[in-house]
# Entry
Amino acid sequence: MSRTLCLTLRIWRQAGPDAPGGFESHRLEGVSADLSLLEALDQLNEQLIAAGQRPVGFDHDCREGICGSCGFLVNGQAHGPLAATTVCQLYLRHIDDGATLVLEPWRARAFPVLQDLSVDRSGFDRILAAGGYCSVNTGSAPEANTMLIGREQAASAFDTATCIGCGACVASCRNASASLFVAAKLAHLGQLPQGQPERGQRARALQQRMADEGFGSCSNTLECEAVCPQQISADWISWMHREARHHAG
# Structure
């Protein structure tokens, strides 16, 4: 038989971007430990709707730790206490019975609150639109052996390509830097032959757009690496800075 929990959820509530916000406490009794935290929020929202109250707003989509849509602070930590885990994959079996969970949105000027736990992360989209792609028409998928890529090179590019753009790195940085996100996008394309023609232009454009969006500079505390659900190394930030210097001018 599944273990059940009693939890107190202290949730940031804010009706809109310009509305005042504050914490509300809600008690959940007899919640199955097999539920994820987002499923517990679903259960709470059913109770709120039944009582004629506004449900808690939060972002989600695939709920499989792939899309990057979900994300908020759990007791002050991005995505919660488990390493390499998105908040949609945080299950209550890892939470103590009787615990109080404080849930609040990413805190960053570049991620304004939309409602409750939901923030506007379109700054990431505008960074990518500034040049985080290959504009050259490469046609259909080539035969696998036409363009040779070393195994280590391909694996390294794939590791950085796994960034899901959730924003945890920004939320955990004292300067709200997007450096890990931008570094991952640059390193993904910068390590592959298809990304070489626009490599320098891309490095300058993405970093400039990051600054224009209001993200801070790297604080060198490595919190971004610690909370990244894909465990992307902060070493790529150093790589990004070398790219900027190499392609300056």
